Amino acid sequence: MKLSNATLDQLPEGIARPSYDRATLTPGILHIGLGNFHRAHQAWYLHRLMQAGQAQDWAILGAGVRAYDEAQRVKLAEQDYLTTLIELDPQGTQAEVVGSMIGYVPIADDHAPLIAAMSDPAIRIVSLTVTEGGYYLDPATKKFDPTHADIRHDAGLSNAPRTAFGAIIAALRNRRDAGHGPFTCQSCDNLPGNGRLLREVVVSLARLSDPELADWIDIECSFPNSMVDCIVPATGPREVQLARDLGIEDAAPVTHENFRQWVLEDDFCAGRPAWEDVGATFTDRVHDYEAMKLRILNGGHQVIAAPAEVLGLTTIAETMAHPQIRALFRKVALEEIGPHVHDVPGMTPAQYVDLIDRRFSNPAILDTVRRVAFDGSSRHTGAVLPVIRDAIAAGTPLDGLALSQALWCRMCEGTREDGTTVEPNDPFWAQLQAAASAARTRPAAWLDLRQFYGDLGDDPRFAGAFDRWLRALWADGVEPTLAAYTG
Description:
Elements: E1 27-32, H1 36-40, H2 42-51, E2 59-63, H3 69-77, E3 83-89, E4 92-98, E5 101-104, H4 112-119, E6 125-128, H5 149-156, H6 164-178, E7 184-187, H7 194-209, H8 211-220, E8 226-229, H9 237-245, E9 254-256, E10 261-264, E11 281-282, H10 286-311, H11 316-321, H12 323-337, H13 349-360, H14 369-373, H15 376-383, H16 385-394, H17 399-412, H18 429-439, H19 444-447, H20 450-453, H21 460-476, H22 478-486
Parallel strand pairs: 1-2, 1-6, 2-5, 3-9, 6-7, 10-11
Antiparallel strand pairs: 3-4, 8-10
Domain Mannitol dehydrogenase C-terminal: 286-473
Protein name: Mannitol 2-dehydrogenase
GO molecular function, one term: oxidoreductase activity, acting on the CH-OH group of donors, NAD or NADP as acceptor
């Protein structure tokens, strides 16, 4: 059955579907970067509220800022913006159709349709999932980088921006001038202090061209910090076939694990849906939840992805079935990351390590090593290197953390142990590969990548451990080196 509003009542028995009248929904949220994660996470929470008869005026408009987003817009428009969510659990598969999204803004080079949509006073939240690397931050300092070509363009030609942030600023200018008031800017990306960083990027970019507008945004808009969590693999032919096997013709279905978490600050300048009624957590301790997740889950992903890639493993579940890689994850997480993570209500760091171990090991989730290893230059600098800094400052163990960096370097050299090629998988791949090749004989060449490591290479304890592990990886191989660390 081809998915559409007209066929909802004809879907196979057992497929949950919207009980609300989608024709009566009106938009309140515009989401930029409408990939699988948003549809499995934020859109699902809103769908649950709508199923309970709430939030009918908070429906989602999708949006994108890159030409390739047009293909996704067309796919979703042809099925009335409905999405089939398929939960993958070792105990069995469940599916539901989510209908909280009701439109997708047309893609244009000057982003005029996007600016117009955000200028509408009905839109009270603009949310984003643009990946860790999409915030124009200096990799080493994680501060706003005003030198990027796209940022310079937007600072000088604000009526035809290239970036999502330039479009946000243009829309906020329109709203201020029309007396419509601000909207909440809500980051849903895996970044420490994601709301604070989003504020820095938007306000700093606005200040380059319009200081008065920058002040207005800084005072009137809100930028809540949040932590989002759900493992959502990429969609390919297998996922499309899964939906077909369930009796649904969906061009863009989404698979996901049987776990979700959303932790937010309650700081919304123009109102918000009652997400707490469907399981979201509102707290002033977002940072503690965020640090636990970023350091153990996201950092753990980076710890295991590099050795898996070098050994030619394909999925994260397959990676966790490798006894030495699983031992690496548990030892690093428990002994070297855990001491720098605080308890949160109902969860200690050790309990969280066990939870992540189970989630990573779920054989029903075919999350690929390549997806997890993508953009390591952002993910290592966001999730792993801050823990190394904490370990240096506290004098706590960092041997396994140094090994994780040696493994990343070994992966970026571009060959697996079986001689096959690791295809480019990072925006800075050429630079990383050159440094990794040089580090084969002079390990310090990797730590000389100051735009990522800053002064970490100056610390003798970390640099010495890195040097020792990288030489071992090239001399002995991945498995013997992991065995040397894990015992």
